[in-house]
Amino acid sequence: MSSPGAISGGQWLDRLLRAYRQACGEPEPSPNFMPELWARIDHNRSSVFRLRRVAQGFLTAAAALAIFLAGLTRTSPQLRAPEVYQATYLDVLAAQHVVEGSFPGSSSEEPSELDLL
Amino acid sequence: MLVDFDLIRRAQKGDEAAFNELVFAYRKRILGTVARLINRPDDVEDVAQEVFLRLFFSLDQLRTPEMFEPWLYRLVVNASYDYLRKRRKRPESRMADLSEQQVLLADADAGEAVDQTEREKARIRETVEALLKNVSEEDRILLLLKEVEGLSLKELEAIYGAKENALKVRLFRARQRVLKSLGAASEGRRGGGS
């Protein structure tokens, strides 16, 4: 190969890199390349399969637990929501109105200065 | 393309014989590319197998068979980066750092007969590897893919998912850096010689 001084640096680099490609050549795969590759694929496949089975197990357990808890809340009266939480917003408003209406003169019942003395 | 689209489609559907054919068709090329990218002959097969392993588990995500080669090269680049990153984390002993070529040269110096062409090839490899040490790993890989593997800018665009102009700028800067170090090296040689 000619020296970098004889041609421009860019051209010299191009030639050098082309020569590098030829100098490296293509390495031959070893006879074990394919068997080892398939062994790695199988190993990973079994790991993925195991992970999927564990994930499926968790999913099934979670679904079973959810169904069990839902059944339990339906059948057990103690776990049922108390009456107060079943009231609608209007019921609550109406109840509050009644409470407010039952003390119409609440402000007049405030202690006067004389009482305090 | 080294294979037809039908073979890729069959491999995508889980046909193991088709996948085997794919590997057979590309393994030499991938081994060569990986060898140049990682520059560590002992680990080339391991990284190449990692590439095909990733291909096996990701082939179903490939949208069109036309994109197979850029997809494969992207896997090559990613696996090489991962390998180089791991290697950076665990530095090995000095003897292990000697490349095959360096060992070959050392042997030659020790008096073993190495034929003239082989010696010239080893010299070229050493020169290029020394020059490419002056750019980052990312730029070295990009430069090798473009200038040594002969990939086009369009193919690189597909591999990196980057705009052609951005890649041109990166390549230009990498080349400038290599040329600068080449200039510095020849200056040093001239200075040392006088």
Could you characterize what this model shows?
The complex is a heterodimer of chains A (117) and B (194). Chain A has one domain (9-101). In chain A, 65% of the residues lie in helices and 0% in strands. Chain A has helices at 9-24, 33-75, 89-101, 113-116. The longest helix of chain A is centred in the middle third of the chain and has 43 residues, at 33-75. The model of chain A has no long low-confidence stretch (mean pLDDT 78). Chain B contains 10 helices and no strands. The N and C termini of chain B lie far apart (53 Å). In chain B, helix 2 packs across helix 4 (68-89) and helix 8 packs across helix 10 (164-193). The radius of gyration of chain B is 19 Å and the shape is globular. Classes of the chains: A mainly alpha (117), B mainly alpha (194).
Helix count of chain A, per DSSP? 4
Structural class of the secondary elements of chain B?
mainly alpha
Number of strands of chain B: 0
Overall pLDDT metric of chain A: 78
General shape of chain A: elongated
List the uncertain runs of chain B. Answer: 93-98
How much of the sequence lies in strands of chain B comes to under 5%
What's the average pLDDT of chain B? 84
Assign the CATH topology of the largest domain in chain B: Rna Polymerase Sigma Factor, Chain: A
The CATH H-level superfamily of the largest domain in chain B is: RNA polymerase sigma factor, region 2, helix turn helix motif
The percentage of residues in β strands of chain A lies in under 5%
Distance between the termini of chain A: 116 Å
Number of helical elements of chain B: 10
Q: Which CATH class of the largest domain in chain B applies here?
A: Mainly Alpha
Kindly provide the radius of gyration of chain B, computed on alpha-carbon positions and rounded to a whole number of angstroms.
19 Å
Overall radius of gyration of chain A: 42 Å
What string, H for helix and E for strand, traces the elements of chain B in order?
Answer: HHHHHHHHHH
Reported for the largest beta sheet of chain A, the result is: none
Low-confidence stretches of chain A: none
